[in-house]
TrEMBL record:
Name recorded for this polypeptide: MFS transporter
Presence of the UniProt keyword RNA-binding in the record: no
Listed GO CC annotations: membrane
Keywords, in A-Z order: Membrane, Transmembrane, Transmembrane helix, Transport
Family annotation (InterPro entries): MFS, MFS_trans_sf
Location of this chain's protein in the cell: Membrane
Keyword Ion transport: no
Residue ranges of coiled coil: none
Lineage: Bacteria, Pseudomonadati, Bacteroidota, Flavobacteriia, Flavobacteriales
Regions crossing the membrane: 12-36, 48-68, 80-97, 103-121, 141-162, 182-200, 241-259, 303-322, 334-351, 357-379, 391-412, 424-444
GO-annotated molecular function: transmembrane transporter activity
Bilayer topology annotation: Multi-pass membrane protein
Primary location recorded for the protein, binned into one broad class: membrane
Length: 459
């Protein structure tokens, strides 16, 4: 099927739901560790508490990709039903996460939240490949990244903004501050509204041969054999991109899980107060806890705000790529390589920076994030069968979640122990991992994946 070249606003509409998805991911990535710490988790326990996120991705995304490939509704299309169901479940989970009274409940909500976000996210990746001709793939994924950057920046600053508007950061032992609760409620609303916008402004192409599609649906479901067959027959380019993804996502999982304890402790000098150190029945001890806890909560707001800068710089980087790729071809391989190395330098520099300099580290990290969200998918989409785009995108997610599972099951703690006991060494590990990911781009040799040729179709 010859696909129509789309204009900017059509691509914007089909990608706008990612604003809500990124609100969910940014609130989760920026503030779940803070919630865990507030509920009494030690910094060594945090990576394991995060294991729900990659595990749900490993299970959910290939299944959703496979099912969406085999779905068609004249009213709702192929991918949009999954957007909508995921948005409803994610919004409910986002709202209730900060009301968790115990660690196990917070970890459970994280599991539900991440599964629901994944239900929406992977069909969005497949939608870009479904709707756009190959010459517009880089452009489409970069527009998606632009919207993700906006969502990351705004959502990461929500608790800080809510606090500035007068909502208290103080809270009793084991209670999440009101500023975080309100921020998550706003995120839940934005998630649902942005997905609905895409659902009602975007149409999808029907299967090329509807009769053959219907006959295939009637056949016995061979989900597991089909998944295993697609894993076994994945293209070489996909495997090579998987190596790059492994080190990239190990780095970012390390940041999401440990940036808050690392930076509040090393950069802001306000670590989370340990419950065992205080006897709250003694007035002086209770007052001392309140002072330290409020300082930790406020510096956590600052860390979240600083992390939002990586969303802002990824947005600026994506905007630059949108303008460039609308008229010209790019070398995806070298763009991705340089971007990842710059992000690695940003992580390494955190060891030496003060609070006012932290934003510059996240600017560099944002450049790598903008590239991670666009270049691998653009390269992959030029190397796979378009009829299997959903399941391939879901399988590709394995290269995202497996490094996160390894990190959560002790990988981060084991590597940190080689440097010392300070949490900031987690950021050092993230920097080294991202630089390795950048250098692994030398593995990519497929010319079509590196730079798709017919640029004249792009508008």
């Amino acid at each position: 099927m010859k696909k129509r070249v789309l204009g900017f606003w059509e691509i914007w509409n089909m990608s706008f739901g990612f604003l809500g998805i990124q609100f969910g991911f940014a609130l989760q990535g920026g503030f779940m560790s803070r919630i865990f710490q507030t509920l009494g988790a030690g910094k060594d326990d945090i990576p394991f508490l995060w294991i729900a996120a990659p595990l749900t991705g490993l299970l959910v995304q290939p299944i959703i990709g496979y099912l969406s490939d085999k779905t068609w509704s004249d009213k709702w299309g192929r991918r949009r039903p999954y957007f909508l169901i995921g948005a409803i479940l994610s919004s409910i989970a986002l709202f209730f996460v900060p009301y968790s009274p115990t660690l196990w409940m917070a970890a459970g909500f994280l599991w539900i939240l991440d599964a629901s976000i994944n239900l929406s996210m992977e069909p969005f990746r497949a939608l870009v490949a479904d709707k756009l001709p190959e010459s517009q793939r880089s452009y489409g994924f970069v527009v998606q990244t632009l919207i993700i950057g906006i969502g990351t920046w705004v959502a990461s600053n929500l608790p800080w903004l809510v606090s500035k508007l007068g909502v208290s950061d103080a809270a009793e032992l084991g209670v999440i501050p009101a500023s975080v609760k309100i921020a998550f409620a706003i995120g839940a609303f934005v998630f649902l509204i942005s997905i609905l916008y895409t659902v009602f402004t975007t149409t999808e192409y029907p299967p090329e041969d509807m009769e053959a599609f219907r006959e295939e649906k009637k056949q016995k479901n061979n989900f597991i054999p089909d998944i295993l067959n697609n894993i076994g027959s994945m293209p070489k380019t996909m495997k090579k991109l998987g190596v790059i993804q492994f080190f990239s996502w190990f780095a970012f999982f390390t940041m999401w899980s440990l940036a808050n304890p690392a930076l509040t402790e090393h950069v802001y000098k306000t670590p989370a107060p340990a419950k065992a150190e205080f006897d709250l029945t003694i007035t002086a001890q209770a007052e001392k806890f309140d002072v330290q806890n409020t300082a930790f909560q406020k510096s956590s707001n600052e860390v979240g705000s600083a992390m939002g800068v990586y969303g802002l710089s990824s947005m600026a980087f994506a905007l630059l790529l949108v303008v460039y790729t609308s008229k010209r071809r790019i070398n995806r391989k070298y763009v991705h390589m340089v971007s990842l190395i710059l992000g690695g330098v940003g992580f390494l520099a955190m060891y030496f920076c003060n609070p006012s300099q932290l934003k510059y580290c996240f600017i560099l990290i944002g450049i790598s994030w903008g590239s991670i969200l666009s270049m691998p998918y653009a390269m992959l989409s030029s190397a796979v069968d378009p009829k299997k785009m959903g399941v391939i995108m879901g399988i590709f997610n394995m290269f995202i979640v497996i490094p996160q599972i390894i990190a959560a099951l002790g990988g981060i703690n084991a590597l940190m122990s080689l440097f010392g006991e300070e949490s900031i060494y987690a950021m050092t590990i993230a920097g080294i991992s991202l630089i390795i990911a950048g250098l692994c781009n030398f593995l990519i040799t497929d010319k079509n994946a590196i730079s798709y040729q017919p640029a004249q179709e792009i508008i």
